[in-house]
């Protein structure tokens, strides 16, 4: 098969136009094009009102050998050649997933996977597919029960610290927009495996080819259940409401530390020589336990800021002009960045078109914002985090050592709780007032979506001064890119502190913790992923590291 990229057609092109473009690119007759499938579809909206669709297609033609010869394309190499029209042609790359190992028939101990977010799910799934019968331990509840607890905070102001937006089956990404793109380098095409497994579990098929796929919350819930069933059918086991509170570590005669199992909150101990830590960024107690047990943990940069809400129609018009509302475009998104005079960078993060702002705390007495949407993305507001990058040097006033970033988060989350009135409402301010430095008293044209509610006031005391100054500078700069972005009535809600993990649980090239053999830090909590897709990819990578180590130990025994 041949892959053609960069086929550009107007947004409303007739279906036949794509076929004609393929035929023209390859210089073949129309009846020599046996079949084609769209591998990727994106759009270029830089010229509003003249939006262009960009396709990559995989093509079957009996002329393939001729074309390869004419373009001097090596039959084996995965490289591009320029066709007559200047566009690109290559052999379709093989992106199918190949397992690296099969479990030996006799395994002394089963691998343990701690956490069932996207990372733990993929560690568990791939290990199960290779026959390793993993046991997944998840502190939260199964996804349906977890949904009730999550809504308990949003509707009744009751937080369950073990079952919420961060903790439970499916992990942090379950109540989300389900955006599935990432800028990670992925030479082994693991992202393709993640997408294929999601489609198998019930995700819309278009996620396999649109350039910025998303799933939305409702679908994610049933997909996670389907993936659980698959893992169990392959001999894996999942235990909910099982929190890992401690590690069993032994040091051998050469002074090398080895993990030997875990202790659960019930006091039960499970023996294992392979323990994957796929904890997510909010497992603060578990990070503290790892640090106390001497596992190598270091502080890492992350970002803090607010959620901003605008009418979705404003974003659609700014991005798509007269073509706003076109079904192929959907609700518009944006990505913005501004480098500030005080040396900070402010950027938009986790943008949720047509979505809602959600309460994302996992500890009592704290307020944290995030965003989610349904597949339809048809709520009236667009929301995104507007955050300022911070580094370990900024953590010093809050504590010492690798966990100081967590103390910074706790401090400002508690401040937000207090400013919101002490009942899980979030503090908020209109953008116009924020820019002028005066408290807000009344909502304008934008009604905030955050539940249980937003208490208007002054957001200046809700974050460090440098972050407030940076965001004040960035909003008018963003308005130059999206007209209306700094509109008076847009609503800011605070605080957004869980943008990524405040720590890295550093691992070596072989996937083991730097100083504890058999412990495999993975996913977002360990600092190796920053979203659903990249967490899934890291899960696959980690499953492979575990499988290869288990096989080599059995072989060496
Ligand atoms: P997590 O998903 O956080 O999973 C970790 C799991 O470990 C949790 O279920 C937790 O309960 C469990 N755990 C922790 N400690 C223990 C312990 N001691 N014992 C047992 N279990 C434990 N990303 C995107 O790419 N697109 C989006 O649209 C998107 N939207 C988001 C919206 C919201 C509201 C949130 C909160 C996040 C969103 N994200 C999104 C980020 C994304 O969810 C995370 O990047 C991703 O879930 C990280 O995966 P993970 O498996 O590494 O960790």
Question: How would you characterize this protein structure?
Answer:
Residues 222-283 form the Amine oxidase domain. This is NAD(P)/FAD-dependent oxidoreductase. Residues 301-499 form the FAD-dependent protein C-terminal domain. Helices cover 28% and strands 22% of the residues. By secondary structure, the protein is an alpha+beta fold. The chain has three domains: 2-91, Alpha-Beta Plaits (2-Layer Sandwich), CATH 3.30.70; 112-297 and 503-556, FAD/NAD(P)-binding domain (3-Layer(bba) Sandwich), CATH 3.50.50.60; 301-496, no CATH class. The strands form six sheets. A seven-stranded mixed sheet has the order 15-16-19-14-22-20-21. Strands 2-3-1-5-4 form a five-stranded antiparallel sheet, covered by helices on one side. A five-stranded parallel sheet has the order 8-7-6-12-24, with helices on one face. Strand 4 and strand 5 (88-91) form a beta hairpin. Helix 3 runs parallel beside helix 6 (217-233), helix 3 (118-129) packs parallel to helix 12 and helix 5 crosses helix 12 (532-556). The model has no long low-confidence stretch (mean pLDDT 95). Flavin-adenine dinucleotide binds at residues 114-120, 137-140, 165-168, 171-173, 175-179, 243-244, 278-280, 283, 286, 350, 358, 360, 370-372, 523-525, 529-533, 535.
